Amino acid sequence: MVNWVTFLDISLSGLGLGALYALVAMGFSLIYKVTGVLNFAQGQIAMVGAYGVVIFGTATVLPAAIPAWAAVLVTVLLGVVLGLALERVVFRQFIGEPVLSVIIVTLALGSILEGVIFFLYGQNAQAYPGALTLGGQLSLPLGTSIQAAYAVAVAIALIVVAVLMLFFRQTVTGSILRASASDEQAAMVLGVSIERTIALAWTLSIAITALGGILLATSSGGAAVSIENTGIIIFAAVVLGGLDSIPGAFIGSIVVGVLQELGSYYLVGGTAVYVPFTNIQANFGAGFGEILPLILLLVVILVKPYGLFGTERIERL
Amino acid sequence: MPCGEYFTDYESRMGLVRWRTQKIALALGLPIPFIAPFLLGGGTVTLLTQAYIFTIAVLGLNVILGYAGEIVLAQGAFMAIGAYSTSRLLAVGAGLLPALAVGGIISASVAVGFGLPSFRVKGFYIAISTLALQFIAEEWFFVNPQLAFIHGGTTQSLPSNVGVVGPVGALGTTIDKYLLALVLLLAFALLSLNLSRTGIGKTFRAIHENDLSASVLGVNVFKNKLLAFAIGGFMIGVAGGMFGFQIGFINAEYFTLGLTLEHYVMLLFGGLGRVWGALLGVGVVTLVQDYLNEGLNYLADLTGTNSTALLPVFFGAIIIVVLAVEPKGVLAGLGKIKEYLRTWPFAY
Predict the structure, then answer these.
(1) What H or E segment, with its residue span, contains residue A260?
(2) pTM
(3) Is the domain defined by B35-284 classed in CATH 1.10.3470?
(4) Where are the transmembrane segments (chain A) (predicted)?
(5) Which of A11, A138, A285, B2 has the fewest CB atoms within 10 Å, i.e. the most exposed one?
């Protein structure tokens, strides 16, 4: 018999994980909408964000550490600078190049970032400074509970998502971003500087991706190489939600997060469920939780490639 | 083109060896790789063998990516499938060639399976469906001990002395492996060259350039894409099996996304869609990688840091620079220089 409290617990942490993925996924969708670049380096950028706090907040690489909150701020600023630099130095060269070139450039970029992190820290997990790690459990109604660090990370993620949504809907800059995403030519005619918009989109995208990486790391107590896998898992989220839809990316992330957590609990190891009416345990082995979203991804690509909210691309000769 | 030689019929125009210079070059050049292992040291022979094997894999990638234009990011997974299948068949004594062939066929079927989404979508979607395959293979399938009944264990040792077919014609020395890799490479290079000259290759190119136009002109796009996946997947699988046999030991860690990227560097550096580009790319990149590895190891010993982790950084930088400066690869760049010198000093 399924224990409902456990089920709610797992689903809840799945929702939380989804909210954390949402930041990375929205970074991806934003860039795709505005510039048409499919960024395969999202996972590595998130990892750089996660390790950035370790670089600045602890004295492992730099001679002295700065306070934890400042380290987070510096890392997000680093994301902004990285976004500007990448747009200016790398991606501007590839405007109008075929999709293949751009995809491979992002893959190469991912491998560069990964190489730098591995150079600095090897493949070991690094603990976060004490101020960023919270102990204890937070009790919620219906007998469920969630780790405090996790709850804080999720809360921040949700606030950022809400602010971003408001930014896109309510501010002039947000409208400019949406306008250039939907029709670049028309926006240009109306006096929008596409150059500046693209630069803004890159900075925003990389900053929120880095923040997503930081929050993923705080929710698990420290930066780890496994954050890199987020880059592949969010593809499941953005494809399910529809590639060019930012709310779609959010909803897709939630679905993927819940799926991953349920999969890791109910289909892996000793807690796995039994196949109905048999004595066989449905244990698919370690790491299957992360595989489940990818299976969903393959199914979505086969059945409904434009996702739930994406616009179907109609091609003409 | 040399002066005074011209084509009088279609066959000689489309021939692989067309001019007298080329005939002489072939007669002089072909024996060199066959004699080389008897003159070179063991280390160099092993390095060359590995380069030949990677060339086969890159040629397979070239069929899918260069000819048909589908972005496949599962190079590592396809090679792993070929390697593990070959290992299992060698263990039951099937002989090397049947084992390689079956490994190739299994790899080809998986490639076709993951090419199925190309019925409705293209480009990016194929890239992520194959990336998902790579992730599943690397992070779960091949490292999962519960699935050992399929793949036979994450780490396996391959027999070092096996027959070519069944127990007949045993081979196992470094030179045997070298010659076998060379023969396979020549066979697959010839296959690729011929593929690009025949109707199938032209159909692939039409799909690459504009699949919608191709389908309007009556090309069955879906069937031809799957065909490209099958041919390419077969070659990559055979290369994987041969790779396993050459080093005599396989581990899931060999077949990561990093391997995929390495092969992309090789293909893009040499020139996408050209057999000679693949050969040149693998040659240059293998040499550079060898030197870089040595240098970084030296640096690591000197400074006490793990600078060997910086190798992907160099590869990433090479890809970006090549794509920004000469997207068609070094071979196209050399062609430009040749054209410039041919007409110099009167360019017009």
Answers:
(1) helix A246-266
(2) 0.90
(3) yes
(4) 12-32, 44-62, 68-86, 98-121, 148-168, 198-217, 280-303
(5) B2
For residue A57, what are the CA distances in angstroms to A53, A62, A71, A116, A220?
5, 9, 5, 18, 17
What SS3 state is found at B171? Answer: strand
A108, B306: Cβ pair inside 8 Å?
Answer: no
- Would you put residue B62 in left (φ > 0), alpha (ψ -120 to 50) or beta? alpha
Q: What percent of chain A has pLDDT over 70?
A: 92
The H-assigned helical ranges of chain B are: 10-14, 20-29, 31-39, 42-61, 75-91, 96-115, 124-136, 148-151, 174-197, 199-209, 211-216, 221-247, 257-270, 275-303, 311-325, 330-343
Give the per-residue pLDDT at B187: 94
For residue A134, what pLDDT is reported?
67
Residues 229-248 of B with CB under 8 A from A: none
Asked if B327's CB is within 8 angstroms of A104's CB, the reply is no
Spatial separation of the C-alpha atoms in residues A20 and A150, rounded to whole Å: 10
Q: Assess: ipTM above 0.90.
A: no
Task: Return d(Cα A91, Cα A98) in angstroms, integer.
Answer: 12
Over chain B (348 residues), the average pLDDT of each successive run of 10 is: 73 80 87 84 85 94 91 92 91 86 94 87 84 89 82 81 75 85 93 90 90 89 93 95 90 88 89 88 89 86 78 87 85 86 78
DSSP state of B169: E
- pLDDT for the residue A141: 66
* Interface-testing mutation among A298, A313, A314, A316, with chain B (most B C-beta atoms within 10 A): A298
Structure tokens at A256: 């993927």
Q: Best of A104, A229, A284 to disrupt the B interface by mutation (most B CBs within 10 Å)?
A: A104
Q: Is A303 on the interface with B (CB under 8 A)?
A: no
Query: What was the pLDDT predicted at B231?
Result: 95
- pLDDT tens per residue, range A57-96: 877 777 777 787 888 888 899 999 999 998 888 888 888 7
- In terms of Cα–Cα distance, which of A238, A223, A231, A246 is closest to A306? A238
Cα four-point dihedral sign B166, B172, B177, B183: negative
CA separation for the pair B340, B27 (Å, rounded): 29
Pairwise CA distance, residues B329 & A12, whole Å: 51
> What letter does residue B140 receive in the DSSP assignment?
I
Host H or E run for residue B249: strand B249-250
For residue A233, which of A218, A217, A249, A222 has the smallest C-alpha distance?
A249
Chain A closest CA to B255's CA: distance in Å? 15
Q: Which of A293, A17, A5 is nearest to A142 (CA)?
A: A5
Distance CA A104, CA A87 (A): 16
What is the rounded CA–CA span in Å between residue B320 and residue B325? 9
Question: What is the b/e burial string over A62-92, where b = at least 16 CB atoms within 10 angstroms of the residue's CB?
Answer: eeebeebeebbebbbebbeebbeebbeebbe
